Amino acid sequence: MSSTKTIGIIGGGQLGQMMAISAIYMGHKVITLDPTADCPSSRVSEVIVAPYDDVDALRQLSDRCDVLTYEFENVDADGLDAVIKDGQLPQGTDLLRISQNRIFEKDFLSNKAQVRVAPYKVVTSSLDLEDIDLSKKYVLKTATGGYDGHGQKVITSADDLEEANALANSAECVLEEFVNFDLEISVIVSGNGKDVTVFPVQENIHRNNILSKTIVPARISDSLAEKAKAMAVKIAEQLNLSGTLCVEMFATADDIIVNEIAPRPHNSGHYSIEACDFSQFDTHILGVLGAPLPAIHLHTSAVMLNVLGQHVEVAERYVTENPSAHLHMYGKLEAKHNRKMGHVTLFSDEPDNVVEFGKGIDF
């Protein structure tokens, strides 16, 4: 990378902000497109204020930048296709489309990448739910939209079918058999279009379908950890990945099942800012620029805790009482309940002793 580049980031939330910080440290300039003038990225970059599907604004961003990237999946792929110059969006829009639609995603994972996923079927209406075996447990998810538990319905008995049928009649869905897993894990992998580099396996604990705590390294056997990393690399190679990708998985007693992919840095990889020699944001920027990628080294075991709107005061108090903890606040102006406001990373090889904010006591 001989020269300074101007990098355009679509999305100015915390992920865009942390991408921008990495890019700026490397000497690059950043322009962000976001509908909100005072978004988190506005603290570290210029912002073009416009909706994500505003083709004129996307064209302005494209005209002013050498390279484009995105911080989340809900970007208008057609709008990007209309404005990007050849090679300007190294991640491509195919990856966006795969990760925007669970039907495409399941097909890609099971048939193209050939990794194990939970048994599933495509549901186009409530008629597709008529013959399901209610001795099993399922989760019905809308094919598009939905995150942090929205747009899904768990089916454990006939009592759940009324709501499930309504969901199935409102949108295309995927019906997955519920996996009996020991742990939820994820693997961050970054590519530069040719080579890939992979981060340690992360163990994730969710509360109300929102990530609460990440433990690194995950408490699974070395053989399962290697299997998880190999699956993430296989997926990345099948995509000719540029930038960072998160592969969310379930670990059972003796196997790994892939749940979904996110085509960007991920909440569960935030620990890497302090705990690894390169963060998931550093490797994302290097990757989309086509630069050589480093092998990732974990300095020490770490725990990351999410700071939601209701946890802000206790998190600020926590770091005054634990000065070795690293507090990251994203600069969001309004602290709403269950809104991700920041995170704390702590080096610890006793993760059970690091208590999640709000667990057991509501401050």
Automatic annotation (TrEMBL):
Keywords: ATP-binding, Ligase, Manganese, Nucleotide-binding, Purine biosynthesis. The keyword Ligase applies. Its EC number is 6.3.4.18. Pathway: Purine metabolism; IMP biosynthesis via de novo pathway; 5-amino-1-(5-phospho-D-ribosyl)imidazole-4-carboxylate from 5-amino-1-(5-phospho-D-ribosyl)imidazole (N5-CAIR route): step 1/2. ATP binds at residues 102, 141, 146-152, 176-179, 184, 206, 259-260. Residues 107-289 form the ATP-grasp domain. InterPro entries: ATP-grasp (IPR011761), ATP-grasp_carboxylate-amine (IPR003135), ATP_grasp_subdomain_1 (IPR013815), PreATP-grasp_dom_sf (IPR016185), PurK (IPR005875), PurK_C (IPR040686), PurT/PurK_preATP-grasp (IPR054350), Rudment_hybrid_motif (IPR011054). Catalyzes the ATP-dependent conversion of 5-aminoimidazole ribonucleotide (AIR) and HCO(3)- to N5-carboxyaminoimidazole ribonucleotide (N5-CAIR). Belongs to the PurK/PurT family. NCBIfam families: PRK06019.1-1 (NF004675), PRK06019.1-5 (NF004679), purK (TIGR01161). PANTHER family: PHOSPHORIBOSYLAMINOIMIDAZOLE CARBOXYLASE (PTHR11609:SF5), PURINE BIOSYNTHESIS PROTEIN 6/7, PUR6/7 (PTHR11609). This is N5-carboxyaminoimidazole ribonucleotide synthase. It comes from Streptococcus raffinosi. The gene is purK.
